[in-house]
Amino acid sequence: MLHTYGVCTSSSYSTLLRELQQIWCDIGESEADKDRMLLDLERECLEVYRRKVDEAANTKARLHQSVATKEAELATLMAALGELNIQATKKNATTLKDQLMLLTPVVEDLKLKKEERMKQFSDMRAQIDRITVEISGYSYLVNSGLTLDMEEQDVSLRKLNEYQTCLRELQKEKSDRLQKIMEHVNEVHILCGVLNLDFSRTVRDVHPSLHMTSLEQSKNISDSTLEGLEQAILKLKTERKVRFKKLKDIVAAVCELWNLMDSTTIREEKCNFTRIISISSEAEIVEPDFLSMEIIQQASAEVERLTNLKASRMKELVIKKRSELEDICCKTHIEPDSKTAADKSIVMIDSGLVDPCELLKNIEGQIERAKDEALSRKEIIDRIERWLSTCEEENWLENYNLDHSRYNAGRGAHINLKRAERARITVTKIPAIVDSLITKTLAWESERRKQFLYDGARLVAILNDYKITRQQKEEAKKQYRDQKKLRDLLLKEKESMYGSKPSPRRSSSFRNGYMTPAPRRNSVGCATPELQTPRSHSARHNGQFKEMRRLSTGPLNFLAMGKEDIISLSSVCGSEPESPPLT
């Protein structure tokens, strides 16, 4: 194309030159003038070419600059966006204009992408700043750790991910704080309801936004708000604890007064305090107005009313408490303090010598001490009851052995036989039971450094007396058996002297006065010394029995006895239990 353009230009130039020379000839220009004008014409043409070359060179330079600028802009955008896979190759472009045409759309696309990325950054930054302000509680922005430097223009995906991570963490922290604040607000609401306090005023003192119910108005979630709510909760819990303790003390006093003055009217009044009595910890209380000052005042008024009623019924209370003390002492066989006896207490109250409250307090103290004493004596008292039960079984066995009809085939005879067998086994354990009880009692006395009294008498002395009396009883039984053998021997002698054995009807008299009469059958207990059990000891202590009878253990001479002496001996000793008939 350029070759054709050059040929056409050369042909036109030759034609114009010939035409110009012809014109010069027609004009009559000299050769010198012709040469000069041709030289000027060539110079002008050269200047035109030179000017065109310069303009083309400038255009090329500008195109180079534009391409370089586009490439630099492309590199900057790629660096800012973190795009590493975009390549605008120049291999397919032969001219600068082609290169510029390749780079321009790529750069424009990256600019649009950067603008979109910047908008995302701006939105995230706004959210981060807003949440940061909400958490910090300040009205101005505090450095959140991330800044958007427009000069640096780092809008890469890595940076975007950092902002997204930061935003998610802040959103989670905001959600956690909001949930925690709502929990605190609910707890404050419950506590205010229990204490009957103004909930609105309480949370408004912490922060006004906490009482706003509109959804458009957000709650303040700053550290100061959380701290304020925690302080408010701590204060309310402290107040709840103080009121609960005060109420429990009042209710304890009320219950004590109720127990002292038990009546139908008072039992009906207990229903109003049933819920309070059943609660053991203030954390269990959730009912509204449960610890209000009105409830505490009502309970205090009840205490005052019962206290006044107690003063008017003090004599009854003293007698009741004294009766309770005596019941405890009776069950544990302890001697109550005679100074606070009912008759003496009434006299002292009527005479004004003692304060009824102090007297009642003294008796209550004695009751507590008696209960403690009863607890420590329980094991020994149980052993005593076992021993007494065994003694009763022994008495039953003795009475059973005196029964002539015990072997008859009547109704229930086999049951009594079985019981007698068990009783004989039980009776053999009495010495061991007594020895064990003495050992246990001595250990109790050694541990507490005082005597173990049973209805005013020392238990060890009672047990030792019982052992001595039981030994005397056994000796008396043995002596009686010896005497019976002697009587049988005398009867045999008389039979050999007078003939046949006298009939039972005539056995009560003898012709010569030497015959021993048949003994009258009495209780075995009459033939032996009385066994001093704690019950008999207590009976004697109360004046119900006289001093124990004791029998002489010396040998008896039936030959030297008169008839009246023998009969008297027979009535005292009774008869030995008969043996079962042989079958």
Describe the overall structure:
- This protein is mostly helical.
- It has helices at residues 2-27, 31-81, 96-136, 157-195, 199-206, 223-260, 264-269, 274-278, 293-312, 314-332, 342-351, 356-401, 413-427, 430-448, 459-498, 524-527, 534-541, 563-573; strands at residues 453-454, 457-458.
- It has a two-stranded antiparallel sheet with strand order 1-2.
- A hairpin with a 2-residue loop joins β1 and β2.
Brief summary of the model shown:
With 583 residues, the chain is mostly helical. The chain is built from 18 helices and two strands.
Structural class: mainly alpha
Radius of gyration: 64 Å
What is the distance, rounded to the nearest whole angstrom, between the alpha carbons of the first and last residues?
Answer: 166 Å
Poorly predicted parts: 141-148, 504-528, 543-583
Average pLDDT number? 75
Report strand order across the widest sheet.
1-2
How many helices? The count is: 18
The main pleated sheet reads as:
2 strands, antiparallel
Tertiary shape: rod-shaped
Number of E-type strands = 2
How much helix, percentage-wise, in residues?
55-70%
Domain count, please report it. 4
Give the H and E element order. HHHHHHHHHHHHHHEEHHHH
Approximate strand percentage = under 5%
Topology:
Blueprint: H1 2-27, H2 31-81, H3 96-136, H4 157-195, H5 199-206, H6 223-260, H7 264-269, H8 274-278, H9 293-312, H10 314-332, H11 342-351, H12 356-401, H13 413-427, H14 430-448, E1 453-454, E2 457-458, H15 459-498, H16 524-527, H17 534-541, H18 563-573
Helix pairs in contact: 2-3, 3-4, 4-6, 6-9, 10-11, 10-12, 12-13, 12-14, 14-15
